[in-house]
Amino acid sequence: MAEIAPDKLPAEPDADAPSEMKTLADRVFARLQDDIVQGLLPPGSKLGETELANRYGVSRGPLREAIRRLESRKLVERVPHAGARVALLKESDLVEIYRVREALEGMAARLAAENMTDAEIAGLTELLAQHERQPGVQDDTEYFQREGDVDFHYRVIQGSHNATLIDLLIGEMYHRVRMYRYQVATAANRPQKALAEHRRILEAIESRDGEMAELLMRRHISRARQTLESRALEEKNSETTDIHD
Amino acid sequence: MAEIAPDKLPAEPDADAPSEMKTLADRVFARLQDDIVQGLLPPGSKLGETELANRYGVSRGPLREAIRRLESRKLVERVPHAGARVALLKESDLVEIYRVREALEGMAARLAAENMTDAEIAGLTELLAQHERQPGVQDDTEYFQREGDVDFHYRVIQGSHNATLIDLLIGEMYHRVRMYRYQVATAANRPQKALAEHRRILEAIESRDGEMAELLMRRHISRARQTLESRALEEKNSETTDIHD
DNA sequence: AAAGGCTGGATTGTCGACAATCCCGTGCCA
DNA sequence: TGGCACGGGATTGTCGACAATCCAGCCTTT
In the complex, which nucleotide's C1' lies nearest to the CA atom of residue B27? Predict the structure, then answer.
C-alpha cells in the first residue's frame, strides 16, 4: 500500500500560537467529531480503524481512543467485534432528547437569570443584535447558528454556572442535536419566531426573573419539538405516496 | 519485578453460562469501577497504568480503554501527560448533582407514572416490601440499597422508558453519587423517612398520577440535598475547633 | 543559603505486529 | 433448489517495545 497523501492534521507546533498542541488522540477526536457532525461521514457509515488511521495519518491507538470518546458522546455506536458506525438517530430519539432538554435547559435558564454576570448578559445582548442583522433571518429563510459561544443556547447554558448541568447539556446532547440539524439540513424552519423567543428569554434574564426565564425557555424548546414532530409526521404521510421531491 | 500473583479476572469461558464474556476492556472497566466506587481505590489516588495492568493481569491497552471510559463517567480525572487519578468530588459538586437530579428524576417519576407496565409496578411494590423488612431500617439506623435493580431510584428511572433520560441519570450521575456514599460512609441518615417517601412516590405511580409523582420525587431529592448541606455545614463548623470525633 | 538549571528516572503517548473473532462467499448435501 | 457447514479474507482486540514528556533530586551559581 503506497503512501497516499495521508492528509496530515496540524501536528507541527509552528505558528498556532495560542492554540493548544495537546495529544494526538485529542486532535483526531476533534477532527473526527467535526467530520461526523458536519455530515462528511454520513450517519450509518462504517468507521474502519485502519482506514481512518491512514486518513488522519496516525496509528490505530490514538484513533481508537478518539472513537471511544465519540462513543461516550453517543455520536458513534460500537459493537464488540463488528466495528464502529456513525450513530444515526431516529426522530423518536430526537424527540426524547428535546423532552429532556426542556427540563434541563429550562433549569439552565433559571440559573442563568440568577447567576449570570452583568458582563455576560451584555455579551448575550450583543450576540442577539448580531443575529438580527444576519441576512437569512431578515428574509425569514434561515436562522443558523454556528457551534460554540456564538450560539444563544450555548451561552445561556454556560451562564447557569452549574458545571454538572453544563457538562450534561454540552457534552452529552448538544452535538447530537447539531448532527441531526446537518443531517436533515433543517435550518430551523421558523427563524424570526425563534429569534423573537430568544429575545424574550434574554429580557427575563436581564430582569433577573428566573421563573419567567425557565418558563419561556421550556416553551421555546417545546415549540421546537412540536414543529419537529409535525414535520416528521407529514414526511411519513408523503412517504407512502412518493419518494420525496 | 517478580510475578506477584496478578489477581486474574474471570477470563476463562468455563461455567459462567448466562454471564457475558465480552471483551477484556469491558471486564477491566467493570472491575475498576467497582474498586473505585467501593473505595478500594480511594479518591485522589493515582492510577498508574503499568501497576493496574499487572494487577488485573492485562496489557496497558485494554486498561487505558477502561480508564478512558471511567473518565467519561467522571469517576476518574486525567491530565494529558501526568496520569489519571480517582476523582474526588467536593460537597459543592454533589449539591450541583442533586439539583440536577431534582429536575431529572422528577421528570423520570412523572414518565414512570405514565409509562410503567403493571408488572413493573408490581415488582416495585415487592421491592419496597423487602426494604421494609431490612434490619437496618427497622431500628432506623441505615437504609442502604445495593447497586442496580434493587435500588428504588434505579427502578423508577428505568420505568420512565426514556432511553436518553436513563442514560443521563444512570450512566452519568448514578455512580458518582454512589461513590460519594461509600466515601463518607453516610448510610442515608434518615432511613425511615426516606422509605416512607419512597412509598408515597410509589402510590402516586400506582394511581398513574404523573404530576404528583414528580412533585413527591422532587421533594424527596430536595430533602436529601438539604440534609446533605446541613451536615456539610456543621462539619465545617466543628472543623475549626477539633479534628472530628 | 536560596534560586535556578540540569540530568536521571519513571510514566504516559504512540506505534507496529500478532492473535482472536467475525463476516461472507463457496461448495456440499438433503 | 434450498439450506447448512466450512474456509478465506478482513477487521478488531491485545500485546510488548520505543519515543516523548514530565517530575524529582542534585548540583552549580550568586
Answer: D13
